[in-house]
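Before any further analysis, we paired sequence with structure tokens, yielding the entry below:
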Amino acid sequence: MKNQEIKKIETLLEDWVESTRHDRKDNILSNHLPDAIIFDVLAPLQYQGAKAYRESFDEWQPPFEIPSLFELSELKITAGDKTGFAHCLINCGGTLPDGKEVRDTVRATFCFIKTEDSWQVAHHHISTPAKLE
């Protein structure tokens, strides 16, 4: 049972990755709860809901060639009966219209809630370590 639930969460994250790589903006958050709390690398500090996060995409997403680089590594998933979480590193970036290559690695944490027979993202947090000097 637990392995099946872990596989469902893994499939949900694979769909998120593919939607992101192929810039399918309206699909990226299809498995997020409407009231999901989202933290991302760029300001603002927090997005209240999937709709607010989606509305911000055009403001900060670089116009990379499609498909862009967006790969999960070191993915670890834990699933209970009604809640689950995952954490990983994301290798991301791509080629800009001027040919410049951009690459970065960020860390990600996801919290999931099971609704009926499907998992939904209740919270996701993308971050990069602060450089303290």
Notes: The beta strands are 32-39, 47-48, 69-79, 83-95, 101-115, 118-127. Residues 64 and 79 are 34 Å apart (CA to CA). The first helix runs from residue 2 to 21. The mean pLDDT is 90.
